[in-house]
Amino acid sequence: xxxxxxxxxxxxxxxxxxxxxxxxxxxxxxxxxxxxxxxxxxxxxxxxxxxxxxxxxxxxxxxxxxxxxxxxxxx
Length: 75
Fold this sequence. Notes:
By secondary structure, this protein is α+β, with helices and mostly antiparallel strands. 43% of the residues lie in helices and 23% in strands.
């Protein structure tokens, strides 16, 4: 006999949600990010990775983004 029958359904739903979320984080999410990609494609740099945006403060209380070019062997 269940001593807390009101908690049985929410506990079952919470357990199911945990199983679905953990299966997505451990299997489906990484699979969707890498599907049909070779190891060389995964390891190469993405377009635009040579641009680095840093927060540059020119005036007190105001900030703007300043673009810096990262030195790399690409093109």
